[in-house]
Amino acid sequence: MTTSVTPTIKCRVVTHYLEDQSEPDNQRYVFSYTITIANLGSGEAQLLSRRWLITDANGKKLVIEGEGVVGEQPTIPANDEYTYTSGTIIETPLGVMQGHYVMVNENGDEFVAEISPFRLSVPNILH
């Protein structure tokens, strides 16, 4: 599990290798990630957009940008959290994801909530 904290936002990430959807012989490794976004502030915050940088073990980089997450732009009340699960595919059994969310607070001020790098790895590949 990886945890990142922006002044009022805390993100926890848990990843899973999806062996049944992966095809190592074809350089296809599928991972899911579940992110819990906790609003530690005194007012609500809405997630507007996301940006991910995904890097595989060969150094291949992929940038993903878009509105919201899993088709939603959730508003997270103060002292509450929002959890979602998504996934990605890389060509190696090991990779790293990092990124940020663009959010807006109850006053209409936009801010960035950073997501620290987290590992995508096939179980037992690292000792």
UniProtKB/TrEMBL annotation:
Gene Ontology biological process terms from the UniProt entry: error-free translesion synthesis
UniProt domain ApaG: residue ranges: 3-127
InterPro entries from the UniProt entry: ApaG_domain, ApaG_sf, Uncharacterised_ApaG
Name of this chain's protein: Protein ApaG
Organism: Photobacterium gaetbulicola
Pfam families given in the database record: DUF525
PROSITE patterns: APAG
